[in-house]
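User: Teach me something about this protein's shape.
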Amino acid sequence: MISYQFEYSERLRCAFIGAGEHSYRNVYPAFQYAPVELLAVCDVRIERARQYARTFGAAAAYGDHHEMLARERPDAVFIVTSYTEDGQVQATQLAEECMRAGAHVWMEKPTATSLAQVDRLAEVSARTGRQLMTGLKKIFTPAIEKVKAIIETPEFGRASSISVRYPQAMPPPDERGDDWRMIGFLDHLFHPAAILGHLMGRVDRLSYEWEPRTGASVSSLRFESGAIGTLHLTAGSAATSPLERVEVVGEDANVVVDNGTRLTYYRAGATIPYGRTGSFVVDDAMAPLHWEPEFSLGQLSNKNLFLLGYVPEVLHFCESVLRDEPLTKGTLADVRRIVELYELYRKTPSGVVVDAP
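Assistant: First, the predicted structure itself:
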C-alpha cells in the first residue's frame, strides 16, 4: 500500500539540483508518495528554480549549488541535469560534490560516460559513507519486478535466454570516439541494459550487426551465467509502435512483457500433442497467466509515475537512507555493468566478437 507524503511521520530533508522538463513531469511529482521534505531547488536559471520551488513546496531557491549545500545541509540531494558541451554528464561531478558535502545522492541516468568515472564515484561514496543511487526506472516497474520474481521460482527453471527490444540508433563507427555524438546512445542504452543486468547478470561476450541507414542493430550476448540473449535496438520503427518488448525463457516456460505494461507468463507443464489436439485450451493449473492495468479508474496503479517506475525508485532511495540500509537496486555496481556494456559497443566493430575484460 502506498502512503501519501503528508502521512509520513519521518521525512528525508532533500534538496534538488535541476529544474528541467523531465524532472517537472516525472521526478518532482513522485515526491507526493515519498517521505521527502523538499528544502530547496537549485538551477542555474534562478527564476526557474524559484518557480519550481513555489510549485513543489520548497522554501528556498538557489542559482548556485555550493551555496545551497552550505546553507541547507540536506540529508540527500536529487540531481536531474544535462550534459556539458564536450559530452560529459553534468551530474557526475555534482554527485561527487554533494557526497563530499555530506549528502546522499539520487541522480538521473546516465551516471557517467566511463568506467573510470563510475569507479571514482564508488571511491567517494565509500570514503564519505554516502550512498549514491541512479534512477534505473525500468527495473522498478511492476512488470519487470514481476518478471524477476517469476524467473527466480523453481517452476520457471534456470533462465536460459532473453530477448530485449528497444528503439535506439547507434552512431556510425567514425563517430563512436566522440563523447558528444555518443551521449544520446549512452542515455538510452541505460534502459535496456538495466533490464538485461537486473534479470540476467553481467554480459561477458558481445557481437552485433549494425544497419547504416537507420543505425539499428542486433546484438548477440552471452552472460556470465552461461545464458544467452539478444538486444534488438529498433531504430527506424514507427513512433506509434509499442516501444519495448522483453522475453525471458526458462525450462519449458517463458515470460513476456509487451510495451512495459502487458505481462504474460507461459507456465511449464502444458502439452499440446501435434496433429491430434482439437483445442488450444489447456488445464487451468498450467494455463498462461496474464496481467495488464485498467485505465478506467483514477488509480495509482495506472499512473505513469508507478507504471514507469518513478515512485518505486524514489521510495527505495528514501527508505534505504532513512533506515540506514544499503541500496539493493540502482547501485553503482548495477551502473558499472551498464557502462561496461557501453564501452564494449564503443570499441567493438560490427561483426566482431569481443569478451568483456
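Now, about its shape. The longest strand covers residues 203-210. The mean pLDDT is 97. If you'd like, I can walk through any region in more detail.
User: That's plenty for now, thanks!
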